Amino acid sequence: MTATDLQRPATAPAFQQISSARKAKNTTATVLVGAAFVIAVAPLVWLLWTVVEKGFSHILSSDWWQKSMSGLTGRQAGGGAYHAIYGTLIQGLVCALIAVPIAIMVAIYLVEYGRNSKLAKWITFTVDILSGVPSIVAALFIYAMWVTTFGLPRSAFAVSLALVLLMIPVVVRTTEELLKIVPDELREASYALGIPKWKTIVKIVVPTALSGIITGIMLAVARVMGETAPVLVLVGYAQFINYDPFNGNMASLPLFMTTERLTTNEIGEARVWGAAVTLILIITLINLLATVISRLTAVKAK
């Protein structure tokens, strides 16, 4: 037996040369998937381009960021969206301050304490229902409770309460999935050292998943800031700046766009495009901030 015979494989390799038929199928599938991607993305790109093209000039003006619409009518040029930008940010912030602690504690209970319990199943069922509730239903529920039952006035705080109902299921689902990813070996190692369960969760489990949790929270905040139904039902529009979310009317970017659209003139239409670009810019900045925070808080592998 020669050296060439020893180097030759005993059996023919299973992976033979790719046939022409398989290459044709692969090419066809690649083309179809690529076409489907283009069809899905094209409307989004067209919409984004249209909004930026018609509204980008507004965000370049310093008045847009420093002035409100106080003293101006819908047919008068000038003014800015300062009052609406503040309203959007404060409503999103108040919503996050209420929703995030509740959602994180619910997720911790579902993963760490209530596995397979009846209470956990009821909570999961409730979260599933909340995740499918339309924003107008959440707004009407808060209106019925806050205004009709308690007799309290419509305000930006009532808007934040409606946004809480929309934000909690998103944060619960995100946090729950991330806590499940944390290896059980970390928990068992902590228990073996005599560390209590609550301290294991606070010091080991949550910090391990903190990067993804923060990303989910920021994305949920960006989502609720663009909701229109709660601001239409639960607060009136104010042309001036109102710093108090508990009293009086307060503008927000979705409400500002709705109000200016009703003016039916070119000036109001231009402000609608400007407000849309501003909202897209704010949400983009929040997403970028979420990415940066996620990287800074991620567990470093040595």
TrEMBL record:
Family per similarity comment: Belongs to the binding-protein-dependent transport system permease family. CysTW subfamily.
Job description of the protein: Part of the binding-protein-dependent transport system for phosphate; probably responsible for the translocation of the substrate across the membrane.
Signal peptide start-end: none
Localization terms from the record: Cell membrane
Biological processes annotated in GO: phosphate ion transmembrane transport
PROSITE patterns linked: ABC_TM1
TM ranges: 29-49, 89-111, 123-146, 152-172, 204-225, 272-293
SUPFAM superfamilies assigned: MetI-like
Residue span(s) of domain ABC transmembrane type-1: 85-294
Name the UniProt record assigns to this protein: Phosphate transport system permease protein PstA
Keyword list, A-Z: Cell membrane, Membrane, Phosphate transport, Transmembrane, Transmembrane helix, Transport
Keyword set includes Transport: yes
Superkingdom of origin: Bacteria
InterPro entries per record: MetI-like, MetI-like_sf, Phosphate_PstA, Phosphate_transprt_permease
One annotated Gene Ontology cellular component of this protein: plasma membrane
Species: Kibdelosporangium phytohabitans
GO molecular function terms noted in the UniProt entry: phosphate transmembrane transporter activity
Lipid bilayer topology: Multi-pass membrane protein
